[in-house]
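Please go through the protein record below and see whether the fold suits the sequence. Record follows.
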Amino acid sequence: MSWQTFSARVVRGHRVASGLNGDPKFPGGTLRMQTPHFRAQGLELGRFFPGTLNISIAPLRYCVLAPRLTLRAVKWHPTEPAEDFSFFDVRLLRADGPAVEGLVYFPHPETKPAHFQAADVLELLLPLVPGLDYGMEIRLEARSDQLQIGAE
């Protein structure tokens, strides 16, 4: 198993996953609503912050190869359509300590009803990492057999 290392910049997302946008349609955020459905299909997210860290890899792009896990037709909301989700291994590299292991959270665009991401943005599920802020440059690793990171 090989890992590819790349740079990214922390960017502001839609704030829907965490619920910080205050949308009453998603009380507590979409991740809190999705978590029990993911758990029922074998994915436990309890060690992660209940929101996503959005990162831009521009000018690079990503290409999905073989997810660690794909969950199909997850009906997590009473009025929204079911969605497909894939997850990929990722590590946040830190100069001041060990790498922080997490997942790339990838709602499939063809089943996602709203809140689309730019082609260079990935959403990460990580434990709470103090000190991260918008605009900050970070270093990440992703498994090269799961995601391809590179120029178009």
Q: What stands out?
A: The mean pLDDT is 90. Residues 3-14+52-150 form a domain with the Elongation Factor Tu (Ef-tu); domain 3 fold (CATH 2.40.30.30).
